[in-house]
């Protein structure tokens, strides 16, 4: 732990001493070696069933298990010696459940603030694969499941096509916010699909576009189209994503034939 700022290391000691703690890990950009001066310190606190957070409460406001949803769970945003530190709670029973599901190619996507396309439940497994153990013991992540590579790519591309259809629908009505919002979501969904195909874990959307090789779409997204060219703008986004003009959802084809 010598590379941790002293104040962050002291907080790790507090987390490791909480009744119920199984492991404390370093996650995020600092664990991946991609941190910059703006990066927070992300500490994961793994427990099973229940955790006594009394000692952590002395350092700031703590959001108990379940308050941030079933995947993100809970935690705290703290300042430690001038460093921003995010403490994220992880119930190992939940982590192991969704890891087993991922191994069978099964996952769900939850709506969560800060996530444009939602957070997939296999994110919990992705965290296991990328985090660095600081204290205690915890199970490592399995190799990227081949079943998830197939099912994930298919599901995310279904969502991508749905989002593009919605974008075109809004564009045809002159709704710029709806068209651009759904188009942006489609970009994230295609990014997820590509990373699933390649068997690469991703923990959030922050660097997903770059990791998926979709940076070329930025040139389209920064152009603000006028209302008369919204549909063409959505089609251009779709083209940059590698989606053919005829690739529409089944219900769209049914409506067109009706």
Description:
This protein is 45% helix and 15% strand. The protein is of the alpha+beta class and 258 residues long. It folds into two domains: 6-92 and 125-136, Beta Polymerase, domain 2 (2-Layer Sandwich); 146-251. It has a five-stranded mixed sheet, with helices on both faces. A two-stranded antiparallel sheet has the order 5-6. A hairpin with an 8-residue loop joins strand 5 (109-110) and strand 6. Helix 6 (146-172) packs antiparallel against helix 7 (176-198). The longest helix has 27 residues, at 146-172. The chain starts with 5 loop residues before the first helix and ends with a helix.
Give the SSE layout:
Blueprint: H1 6-16, E1 21-27, H2 28-32, E2 41-47, H3 54-57, E3 74-80, E4 83-91, H4 92-103, E5 109-110, E6 119-120, H5 123-130, E7 132-136, H6 146-172, H7 176-198, H8 208-211, H9 218-221, H10 230-240, H11 250-257
Parallel strand pairs: 2-4
Antiparallel strand pairs: 1-2, 1-7, 3-4, 5-6
């Amino acid at each position: 732990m010598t590379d941790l700022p002293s104040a962050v290391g002291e907080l790790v000691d507090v987390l490791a001493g909480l009744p119920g703690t199984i492991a404390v890990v370093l996650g995020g950009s600092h664990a991946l070696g991609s941190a910059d001066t703006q990066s927070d310190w992300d500490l994961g606190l793994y427990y099973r069933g229940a955790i006594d957070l009394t000692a952590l409460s002395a350092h700031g406001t703590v959001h108990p298990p379940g308050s941030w949803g079933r995947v993100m769970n809970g935690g705290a945003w703290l300042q430690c010696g001038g460093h921003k530190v995010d403490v994220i709670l992880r119930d190992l029973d939940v982590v192991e459940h969704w890891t087993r599901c991922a191994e069978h190619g099964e996952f769900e996507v939850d709506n969560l603030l800060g996530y444009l396309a939602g957070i997939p439940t296999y994110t919990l497994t992705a965290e296991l694969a990328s985090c660095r153990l600081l204290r205690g013991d915890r199970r490592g992540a399995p190799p990227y499941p081949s079943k998830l590579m197939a099912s994930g790519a298919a599901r995310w591309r279904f969502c991508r096509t749905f989002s593009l259809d919605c974008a075109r629908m809004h564009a045809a009505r002159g709704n710029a916010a709806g068209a651009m919002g759904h188009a942006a979501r489609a970009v994230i969904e295609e990014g997820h699909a590509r990373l699933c195909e390649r068997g690469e874990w991703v923990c959030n959307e922050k660097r997903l576009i770059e990791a998926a090789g979709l940076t070329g779409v930025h040139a389209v997204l920064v152009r603000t189209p006028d209302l008369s060219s919204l549909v063409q703008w959505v089609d251009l986004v779709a083209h940059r994503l590698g989606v053919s003009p005829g690739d529409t959802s089944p219900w769209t084809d049914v409506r067109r034939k009706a």
